[in-house]
Amino acid sequence: MIKYDELLRYPISEGRQKLSRRDTALYALSVGLGQDPLDTRQLQFVDSTRALPALPFMAVVLAPHGFWMADPKTGIDVVRLVHGEQSMQFHAPLPVDGEVIGRTRIVDIIDKGDGKGALLYTSKELIDATTGELITSLHSTTFLRGDGGFGGPNGPVKPIHTLPERAPEFRVELRTRPEQALLYRLNGDYNPLHSDPAVAAKAGFDRPILHGLCTLGLCGHALLRTLCDYDASRMRSLALRFSSPVFPGETLAIEIWSDGSFRAQAVERQVTVINNGRAEVAV
Predict the structure, then answer these.
(1) Active-site pick, 209, 254, 256, 274
(2) What class is the 4-144 domain?
(3) What is the structure's pLDDT at 64?
(4) Catalytic residue (choose from 189, 254, 260, 277)
(5) What's the rounded mean pLDDT across residues 36-46?
(6) Domain(s) of CATH 3.10.129.10: residues in the chain
(7) Residue 163: what pLDDT?
(8) Which of 79-88, 245-254, 255-264 has the lowest mean pLDDT?
(9) Is 12 an annotated catalytic residue?
(10) Is residue 189 among the annotated active site residues?
(11) Could you say which architecture CATH assigns to the domain 170-281?
């Protein structure tokens, strides 16, 4: 069982990662850029002979610190946890050749009650190892489905972004590839839920599912295309809530409002997979 004060003080190890142009291109390919070989706006992110700017939302895979929640000292039931929300603020461009440091801390744990789970809020700073400059601030909410009722505080709960009531101004359809999860895992997330049919079956799925953060990358791609004309330097922030998993091979329909609000649906199942999204973009 979770012990609130002890978990708040849990020391999460620092992550470090050296980056190369290959890493930058691999991430862009893994979230679907380059599928149109005639679109040079996409090719700049995947062709190492071109400028090769890094996608800002690549920050979610950088400088990992391992699956620290699996440490028995945390008291977390790791079998039943779900990534609930993710947000990022982009302060500076990601280095294409260089080294980054990731420093993560637990911000709070909200007890929703016995049988109702808990919310774990974490914050991560991604820092340029050479200059010490803050590149990206990341904030995650993890829903601990099996850990409610430990006697912790029941609030405050972070508010969600409310989507506009009017119809969205843009709709982008992006088809995921059947092997996309196998490609995306090369960014460093080797959870077998996304590759092993037997593990997926134990989790209640008839096949491996796509990484939630890969779905985030696909939404980022749609926003980059629609609101930024593929100018990555214009993205200032990105936030969303995960609603349902995506299966590789499905088509995502990303609906976007002019104020940066967005949501995404798996077309074949008519299921909302991303909700309450919001991006801030420089004019």
Answers:
(1) 209
(2) alpha beta
(3) 92
(4) 189
(5) 92
(6) 4-144, 170-281
(7) 98
(8) 79-88
(9) no
(10) yes
(11) Roll (3.10)
